[in-house]
Amino acid sequence: MLYSEPWSIAGLACLVADWASLLEVFGVIDPSDSGKTLRKKIASSGGNYRLVENNYPIPHLGIEAILEEEEKEWVNYSGSLAEIPTGRPRTHRPLVLQGWVLFAYGIFLSGILTMVLIYRWSRILDYEKFMSGQGTRVRLFMLCVGIITRSLWEPIEKGMLPKSHTSSPTADHILVIEVRHLEVFRKLSRGHQSPEATILTDYPRDIPVVGELKALSRGDFYMAFVGFVGTLIEAFVVSIPGVPFEPSQTNQSFEVSTWLSVSVLTLVLFAVILVFFRRRSACMPRLPYSIATVVVYLYAARMLRNLVGLSMLSTKERNKKIAGMEQTYGFGWTTSVDGNIRVGVDEEELYDFYNYPS
């Protein structure tokens, strides 16, 4: 049973505040390990995971690793940063955020936009006659265009929870595949961030319109725009079938459908271009697209000492407690509670920010 949401960084951090219970799995992770290497190390541990209530050192609900007894080769990064391997591994991105997919999506949107513009403002009689004369078939085609546009945008904006490649739940389950989740880490990489703007933010669960207003109130115009585009796409699915004119349709409804469709297509195309370039600015060894990756970034962080027991509170009570600590947070190199230097999310001051070597 969970007492509060686990999807924000703070929510998951409260569940792993007893970091020693995960020592035998996450204590062997190299800060510069690629996502593929990380998955191999976790899979080779042969363990299972469970939520348990214990008294560490106060009543606490957390994630615990259950492993067979075997020797581990511990990783100890207690030296200088110059001695820490910081090579840039190949960045693994979900399919929907890979460059060629976003490029293809942009071409698709450009083609539909061009088709609508030519139909509305050109004087190509054969094309106009074809579009207006096919009736139901063209409208059905336009409806499919709207559904495809929405289906391709949703994984980018809202994310999804696909099935794991294993039959039982593990820490390697995909958490979210979306620009919203990455945005929190992008802010943290700049440092000096309030908990309300970062670790307490639950972008994936924001309600449409309400989420955009919350983002605007935080001054997060990028996420407000992304959410606004997602809301408009719902209207686009309804408006695009009204673009082919037919005798039973009023001229006013045709104009409204056309202008709305053109406006939404233009905004979505701009949003895809923005996502394409902005996704490249995240500076971290691994993108945080699985529970395991996020736990690695939280493992043994100093901030966890203040979060023990907060997993037993409601979301509202927990967030109030964390906000009341008046701490700022960042992403970078930090001296963790086990004395080692790791890269991850932690309270400030950090040892140093994380940058790829030149």
Q: Any overview of this molecule?
A:
The chain has helices at 9-15, 23-26, 35-44, 99-121, 125-133, 136-157, 179-188, 210-217, 221-239, 251-278, 291-298, 315-324; strands spanning 48-54, 60-66, 329-335, 341-347, 352-353. It is mainly α and 358 residues long. The protein folds into two domains: 9-89 and 294-353, no CATH class; 95-161 and 205-280. The strands form two sheets. It has a three-stranded antiparallel beta sheet with strand order 4-3-5. The chain has a two-stranded antiparallel ribbon with strand order 1-2. Strand 1 and strand 2 (60-66) form a beta hairpin. Helix 4 (99-121) packs antiparallel against helix 10, helix 8 (210-217) runs antiparallel to helix 9 and helix 9 (221-239) runs antiparallel to helix 10 (251-278). It starts with 8 loop residues before the first helix and ends in a 5-residue tail after the last strand.
Features:
358 residues, mainly alpha, 2 domains, 12 helices, 5 strands
* Strand-residue proportion: 5-15%
Rg over C-alpha atoms, rounded to the nearest angstrom: 24 Å
Count of DSSP H/I helices: 12
Overall 3D geometry?
A: elongated
Helix-and-strand structural type = mainly alpha
What are the segments in which pLDDT stays under 50 over at least 5 consecutive residues?
70-91, 160-177
Order of helices and strands: HHHEEHHHHHHHHHEEE
Q: Distance N terminus to C terminus? A: 46 Å
Q: What is the count of distinct domains?
A: 2
Let me know the number of strands: 5
**Major sheet: arrangement of strands:** 4-3-5
Helix content: 40-55%
**Average pLDDT metric:** 78
Reported for the largest beta sheet, the result is:
3 strands, antiparallel
